[in-house]
Design goal:
Length: about 90
């Protein structure tokens, strides 16, 4: 039991959106929204590929704007969806 708790905690201190969604028990909600909201589905597809290491990659202005839009778009971006579950 202690190891399971430790694994859970270790998986909370990561920059992997898929694992964080699973740890927060939001996978079913995310998948359901993705199936009914094509805008969210597209934004999720962009945002999920961000990693701690990718923040250092050189991006074009267009790619940077696309990521910002995917994260912040109201009401269909990833961050507004996350905020609904705080």
């Amino acid at each position: 039991m202690i190891f399971a708790a430790k694994d859970f905690l270790n998986n909370c201190w990561i920059h992997d959106l898929e694992k964080l969604v699973e740890n927060a028990d939001l996978k079913v909600d995310r998948d359901g929204l993705s199936s009914t909201n094509k805008a969210f589905q597209g934004y999720w597809a962009v945002a999920k590929d961000w990693t701690e290491k990718s923040r250092y990659d050189v991006k074009t202005e267009s790619q940077a704007k696309e990521l910002i839009e995917a994260i912040t778009h109201e009401p269909d971006g990833v961050l507004p969806w996350i905020r609904k579950h705080w």
